[in-house]
Give the backbone structure.
Amino acid sequence: MVMAQHLFRAFEVSERVQDAKPVFAGRVVQKRIADLPAGDVLIRLAFSSLNYKDALSASGNRGVTRSYPHVPGIDAAGTLVHCADARFKVGDAVIVTGHDLGMNTAGGFAEYIRVPADWVVPLPDGMTLQQSMALGTAGLTAALCVDKLLHNGLTPAQGDVLVTGATGGVGSIAVALLGKLGFAVTACTGKPRETDYLHAIGARHVISREEVMQGSAKPLLTPRWAGAIDVAGGELLGAILRSLSEGGSVACCGLVSAAEFPITTYPFILRGVNLLGVDSVRIDHGKRREIWRKLAAQWQVPHLEIMGKVISFKELESELEAILEGRGKGRRILDVCA
Ligand SMILES: NC(=O)c1ccc[n+]([C@@H]2O[C@H](COP(=O)([O-])OP(=O)(O)OC[C@H]3O[C@@H](n4cnc5c(N)ncnc54)[C@H](OP(=O)(O)O)[C@@H]3O)[C@@H](O)[C@H]2O)c1
C-alpha cells in the first residue's frame, strides 16, 4: 500500500515572467501521492518516453497544456500499486498513452501517475515495459498509420512508400515497420548525415525534403508514391498529395512543419487519392488494444535497439529542446528509476 504522504520524483515545468515575457523551465521536484489527480488506478512507473507533444508542453504551448506548474509525459509504463477497477489487479504491468495524460493531467515524467482505468492498456504478452516505451505514442501512431494504409488497400506491389520526418520518433518506427512488412520505403529527411541510420532501420532510399517538394507549385506532379506517412503537414503534405499514384493514400498524423497545406482538388478528382487522418489520442479502446497486441506479435518493430536511447531525468530538458528544434533522432526512453 502506498501512502498518500509518500514522496516521489517528478519533472515539473513552471512558468515565470522575465522581461515581461513568460519563460518555462523544468526541474526535478519531490511530490506526494496526495498531489496526484483523482483516478481509479495508481501506477508505479518504470519508463516513460519523449514525444514532440511533450516538448510542446514543456515549452509552454497552451494548445497542449493550459496551466503550470505541470508534469509532462504523454506516455507511461509500469505496475499497478492500487486499483479500484475489476478489470485490473495490483501487480499488473500496464501502458498508458494518449487521452489527457501529460497534457492537462500530471504525466509520465514521474515515478507515479494516477489515471482513470479506462486509459489503461494491459502490457501485451511478449513485450517488456521498456519495449513498450521504446514504441510509446510514436509507435502506436506509426502503427495506426500503417493500419489505415493497409485498410485502404496499399500493398508492397504497388510501389514506393514515402515517410516524412524519417529520423524522428513516428518516422523511424514507420520506416522500420513498413520495411518489415515488405514495402520499399523512401525516407524523407532534413538530416542527410543520418542516411546510414535510415538505411540501417529499413529505408531503401533516402531523399531530402526539397526533392519531395520539387516543382510543387504545379497542381499535379509526376506520380511517385503508392502511399505515404506524413508527420510534417505544410508544403510537404501538399507536394505528397500531388505526387501520389492513382488511388494512392497518405496517412497524415503531424504538423511539425505547418498545420495548413496548399492543395487543389485535382489529385482527389483526377487521381482518386486519399487523405487519411490518424489520431492516437482518442482512438477507440478496442482498436488501441488491438494495435498494441499486434506490436507485440506480428508487427514487432525491428531495430528498436538502434533507434532507442535510454535517458535519465538529468538529460530530459536537453532532449526535449532537441526535439523542439527538429534535432531529435529516433526514440528517447525515460528510465524514471535512474
Ligand atoms: N496524430 C497523432 O496522434 C500523433 C501522435 C504522435 C505524434 N504526432 C505528431 O507527429 C509529429 C511527429 O512527432 P514525433 O514525436 O515523431 O516528433 P520528433 O521525434 O520530434 O520527429 C519529428 C521529425 O520531423 C522532422 N522535421 C522537423 N522539422 C521539420 C520541418 N519543418 N519540416 C519537415 N520535417 C520536419 C525531423 O525529421 P527529419 O530531420 O528526418 O526530417 C524531426 O526529427 C508531430 O507533429 C506530433 O505532434 C501526432
Summary: The first strand starts at residue 7 and ends at 18. The CA atoms of residues 319 and 328 lie 7 Å apart. The chain has a mean pLDDT of 96. Residues 51-53, 137-138, 141, 164-171, 189-191, 209, 231-232, 236, 253-257, 278-281, 323, 326, 328 surround NAP (CB under 6 Å).
